[in-house]
C-alpha cells in the first residue's frame, strides 16, 4: 500500500541517482519511477534505474523463509523455525569450534544502518572476527592508496559538480557511459575543451566520448597502467611541469618518487604499454595545463594484483601536478556499489570499526565498546579479507557457518568453482536476499528481506554525501527487514547490547559510534538529512556543516601533509600470443548490475542482454575460426566458460572481454584466479591469461598458429 510519493534514490550504483516513487498507474505494477532533479543526475536515470521498480512485483521474489527438508529441497518454513535453526547451529558451532567458526559476508549495497548493524552483530552477538564484504572486490585498493597518501579515503573528495568546470579529465579504467550514464553530463565541459582522456584497452562507450575533438583515447595493454602512470610522472618532472611550491608546502616523499620514476623514460614506457611516446607527452602536457585538471580511477586499473600501487601512482601524479585539495583540480576514485562508500565506513570490513576506525586501535575500541554497552576486551581483533575468508570455508580451523547479506559470491567472487566447493563444506550457509540468487540456491536457510522501496535508511554516494532512502510501499507479507532479522538472532543468541529494528535509531547510534572517527557522522540526523537544501558530506562532526571539499587546508595525517609513496612496477612479459592464448579482461554492461541477481529478473534488461558474449577483435577471431555469434570456449587450466563470440573492432587483438553478470557455464569468474593485491586483498579481476577456441568445429581452420 503506497502512502505518498517517496523522494528516494536508485537501488543500484554509487551515483545514487535521485528518483521519485509514486503509486503506479499501470495494472499489475505497484510503483512508477520518475527521475528527480539532483546535482549528480540532474533528473536523469539509466535503464536500470527506470526499470528498478519492476523487481518489487517480481513473481520470483521469495516471500517466506526457506529451509532444506529431509530430501534436501528448499521448502517454506515459518520465521520462528528458520531463526531458531540458525541460532541453534551458530551456538553449536561456537561451543564446539570457537567464535571464529562463524563468519559474516556483507555487501556494499546495504544501507549504512544495515552495514553498521551487521558489523556490530558480528563483533557483539557472534563474537567473531570473521567478517568482510564484497567491497573488498570493489573499493579496497583505491581505499588503501587513499589512506596511505591522504590519511583518509573518500572516493571523490569533492562534489561531482566540480567536474563541470574542468578542462581536462583523465579517466583510467572507468567506463561511466555504461556504469553510471548520467555521470557523463559532468564530462561535457572537458569534452568541449578537447580534454577528456580515457585510458582503456577497449574503445568503450566512454572512450568513444573522446571522438570528434572531445579528447584522446589511450589503449594500453591490460594491466600496464602502473607503468603508464610512472611514465607520465617522469615526463611531468623531466619537462619541469611539476608544482614544486605545492610539493614542498603540502607533501612529503617527492624526492623518492622523483628517483623512482627516473628510469621510466617515454620509449621504455611505450615498449611496455604500447602507448606511443608522442601520446604520452601530449597527455603529460595537457594534464599540466592547469585549468581544472582531474584524474579519476575505476575498477579497470584497481582490480589488479598491483591495484593499490597503481592507484598510488595516480595519486602521486596528481600530487606532483599540485591538484589534490587545490581549487584547480583533484584526484578521485569512482565508488561502485550503491553504498560502496558508506558500506566501508561502518564496520563491515575485517579490520575496521564504525567511523572508519581501526579495530586494533585501543581508543577506538574503547569508544565503540562504550556505545555498544560492552567491554572493549570482548571485541574480537581483526579478521581476514574476503578472498581469504572464502578460502577458509570448511577448512581445518576454518569457517563452518556463513551468513551472507548482500552478495552473490558464487557468481562474483574470483574462482567461483573454489568458492562453490568451500560453500559445500559448510555446516550452515544462511543467505538473506530478495531472490533465490545462485548463492541462495546453495543455502541451508534463505531469509527473504525488504527491497529498497520498502525501507528507510541512508546511503553514502560516491561523493561521500549522505542521502536518505525513503519507504514508498509496505513489503509483501512474509518478508522482513534485515534489522529485524539481526535483532531476532541477537536475542536468540543471548547477546549483550541493543539491536534496534528501527533505521532511525540505528542511524543515531551509528552517528555516536562514528564520533571522533575519520568518517564522523555525529552531526547528522534523519531530520537534518530530510532537508535536501543542506547537503551532507562527511566528515560531519557535531556542530559542523559537513565537508564538501576535503584537503583544502591539510591532509588527514598528523602533520597535515600528503605522502608521496614511491612504487615499483614489474616489467611485463605479455602472454605468448599463439594457439588462442589471449588476455581476458572482465567488466560490465549497461543493462546488468553485478552478478545479475537483480537485473536478470527484469524482462526488458534480460531481453536486451540475455547472455554473456565474449568481445573479440575480428583479426584474432579469423585466425581462430571464430564467427560473430558462434560458440566459443575460454579456458584456464581445468576451468572453462562456454558462450558466444561478438566480433568488435573496439578491443585490442591480444585481448578479449567478458561481462561477469552471468552464472553457470557463462560465468567469467570460473576463469579468474584467487590472486590478490598484497596490501588491499583486492582480487585480480581484470587480467587473466586464457586460451580460446571455437566450439563451432566446422569453421576452425587447419592451422591456428598466429
Ligand atoms: N551497468 C552497471 N553499472 C554499474 C555496475 C554494474 O554491475 N553494471 N556496478 C557498479 C559497481 S559495484 C562498480 S565497482 C562500478 C564499476 O565501474 P567501472 O570501473 O566503470 O566498470 P568495469 O566495467 O568493471 O571496468 C571499467 C573499464 O575498465 C577497463 N579495463 C579492464 N582492464 C583494464 C586495464 O588493465 N587497464 C585499464 N586502463 N582499463 C581496463 C574495461 O575495459 C572497462 O571498460 O560500476 C557500478 N555501476
Ligand atoms: N570478473 C569480475 N568479477 C567481479 C567484478 C569484475 O569487474 N569482474 N567486480 C567486482 C565488484 S566491483 C563487485 S562490487 C562485486 C559485486 O558482486 P556481488 O557481491 O555478487 O553483488 P550483487 O550482484 O549486487 O549481489 C548482491 C546480492 O544481494 C542482494 N541484495 C541487494 N541488496 C540487498 C540488501 O540490502 N540486503 C540483502 N540481504 N541482500 C541484498 C541482491 O539481490 C544480490 O543477490 O563483484 C565483483 N566481481
Ligand atoms: S546510473 Fe546508477 S544510480 Fe543512476 S539510475 Fe543507473 S544504476 Fe541507478
Ligand atoms: Mo564494485
Walk me through the topology.
Layout: E1 6-9, E2 18-23, E3 31-35, H1 47-50, E4 66-68, E5 74-76, H2 79-97, E6 102-106, H3 112-126, E7 131-133, H4 140-150, E8 168-172, H5 176-179, H6 188-192, E9 196-199, E10 215-218, H7 225-238, H8 244-250, E11 251-252, H9 254-261, H10 266-273, H11 277-287, E12 293-297, H12 299-302, H13 307-320, E13 329-333, E14 352-353, E15 357-358, H14 362-372, H15 386-391, E16 401-405, H16 409-412, H17 416-424, E17 428-433, E18 445-448, E19 457-460, E20 466-469, H18 482-492, H19 503-514, H20 526-529, E21 562-563, E22 581-587, H21 603-608, E23 613-616, H22 618-623, E24 631-636, E25 639-647, E26 655-659, E27 688-694
Parallel strand pairs: 6-7, 6-16, 8-9, 8-12, 9-10, 11-21, 12-13, 16-17, 17-18, 22-26, 23-25
Antiparallel strand pairs: 1-2, 2-3, 4-5, 4-18, 14-15, 19-20, 22-27, 24-25, 24-27
This protein binds ligand MGD (2 copies), iron/sulfur cluster and molybdenum atom.
Question: Mind telling me which CATH architecture of the largest domain this is?
Answer: 3-Layer(aba) Sandwich
What is the count of DSSP helices, taking H or I runs of 4+ residues?
Answer: 22
> How large is the radius of gyration?
25 Å
Identify the overall geometry: globular
Largest sheet: 7 strands, mixed
Report the span from N to C terminus: 63 Å
Q: Low-confidence segments, ≥5 residues, pLDDT <50?
A: 702-706
Mean pLDDT: 96
Structural class: alpha/beta
CATH topology of the largest domain: Rossmann fold
How many β strands by DSSP? Answer: 27
Trace the largest sheet across and list its strands.
Answer: 5-4-18-17-16-6-7
Work out the oligomeric state of the chains in this entry: single chain
CATH class value of the largest domain: Alpha Beta
GO biological process, one term: respiratory electron transport chain
GO molecular function, one term: molybdopterin cofactor binding
Domain 4Fe-4S Mo/W bis-MGD-type: 3-60
Organism: Agreia pratensis
